[in-house]
Amino acid sequence: MKAKDLDKKFDEGKSIKKYLDLSKARKPEQEQRRINVDFPVWMIQSLDKEARRLGVPRQSIIKVWIAERLGEEVVA
After folding, report:
1. CA pseudo-torsion sign 49, 52, 54, 60
2. How many CB atoms lie within 10 A of CB 75?
């Protein structure tokens, strides 16, 4: 199928899923990369306490708090 035909189908609100290879689809800048960070014991204990309170893994707390802070920096 030519790009202009695909564009036309999309613009008309028709589904184009069958024409796409979604196995290779990626969200830009959403790939994950592992890093190592050393925290003092008191911080880990505080993170674990909050994670238990919320019923989520420690990593989730860290990601959310960093994302919130980075979001504030963008706005400021």
Report:
1. positive
2. 5
**In 1-76, alpha helices (H):** 3-11, 41-54, 58-75
- pTM of this prediction? 0.58
Residue pointed to by tokens 């993170």:
47
Which residue bears the tokens 């969200």? 27
Number of C-beta neighbours around residue 31 at 10 A = 7
pLDDT digits (tens, 9 = 90+) for 2-24: 889 889 888 999 998 888 888 87
Largest CA distance in the chain: 60
